[in-house]
Amino acid sequence: MKIGILGTGMISEQFVSAAQEISEIECVAVFNRSQEKADLFKAKYHLAQAFADYEQLLDQQLIDTVYVGLPNSLHYAYAKQAAEHGLNIIIEKPFVSNIQEFDELIRITEERQVKVVEVTRVLSLPNYQVIGEHLSEIGKISLIFLSYCQYSRKYNALLEGGTPNVFSSDFSGGALMDLGVYNIHFIIGLFGIWDKLSYIAKKRDNEVDLSGILLMEYPDFIVSASQSKNSFCDNQIIIQGEKGTISVPGIPSKLDHVYLSDKDQKTLISVEQSRNNFYYALSDILHVFHDDQLYQARLAHSRLVMLTLDQARASAGIVFKADRSDR
Question: Fewer C-beta neighbours within 10 Å, C or N terminus of the chain?
């Protein structure tokens, strides 16, 4: 797999660092609208070429896949353009801005006979599989609590009057799309679609959410998922059952330690995850690309996540520029 990297931010750096540990992946080129930034990234990671013109990168026939590590609102347009050039796509979470973009992008990829896979950094973790394997041991589930709260390095700029992309409705930002998406991947992957949903959000200027609590009702249990970009928290995951509890001190995209507890004892059940989460994600994506059954299942999962994000935003009155017909 020969990959062109779209974007030179921290997430793209993490992607390339993990990809360079996998022999089946070669990061060949990078794109940034600033040639200077593209050149610096190329030099740092020893890539072959750097581009400030996206169309030029696509036309060079250097790559067979792009990684879209751009702001949320740009995912659809750049992925669409890559698909129209016959390239596969690895797309950063969240997949796109809304379900309409999702369905249209899938239509285009099917028409062009290429594939697109979202980087979740949850489903591929070895300890995510461990959690699934032990769910039956805690009996009938009644409550689940997750938190992913992290004071954003861009929040101070917002307080000073700026509008960083991650806090902009023009760029499909906010706590739910940036952090809450991990919580949603975690729950949807284990339990499928919910029956009812509501999102209570603290919004900036009545636009995107700075923080919020997502409630998902299932037939037998309730999920409470909190996400925040303007506060600190000892993040945790707690799955409560009639016979016991599965708990994780940390966030859904890491899952370093998993505990199984009952009334008598608390046992560490996690396995050692010797690699970082991006490594596991990329190794998983290779399998998904080469197995059509896995690919279709992953698309179905990502679509449920996208539907959940859309419904949650509608519940909280969060509207993006991408949602408007006059964008």
Answer: C
Indicate the CATH number for domain 126-323: 3.30.360.10
**Helix then strand then coil, % of the chain, to nearest 5:** 40, 25, 35
The CATH number assigned to the domain with range 2-119 reads 3.40.50.720
107 CB neighbour count, 10 Å cutoff = 11
Q: At what angle do helices 10-19 and 277-290 cross, to 10 degrees?
A: 70
Helix axes 10-19, 35-45, angle to 10 degrees: 30
Q: What is the structure's pLDDT at 207?
A: 87
What would the pLDDT profile of 137-173 be if each residue is shown by its tens digit? 999 999 999 999 999 999 999 999 999 999 999 999 9
**Confidence band of 205 (pLDDT split at 50, 70, 90):** confident
Task: Kindly state the percentage of the chain with pLDDT values over 90.
Answer: 97
Answer whether the bond into residue 126 is a cis peptide, omega within 30°. no
Q: Where are the domains of the chain?
A: 2-119, 126-323
Report the alpha-carbon distance of residue 91 to residue 288 in Å, rounded: 13
Strand-pairing partners, residue 4, are 29, 66
**Could you report the per-residue pLDDT of 242-274, keeping only the tens digit for each?**
999 999 999 999 999 999 999 999 999 999 999
Give the span between the Cα atoms of 67 and 284, in whole angstroms: 15
Tokens coding 119: 């980087």
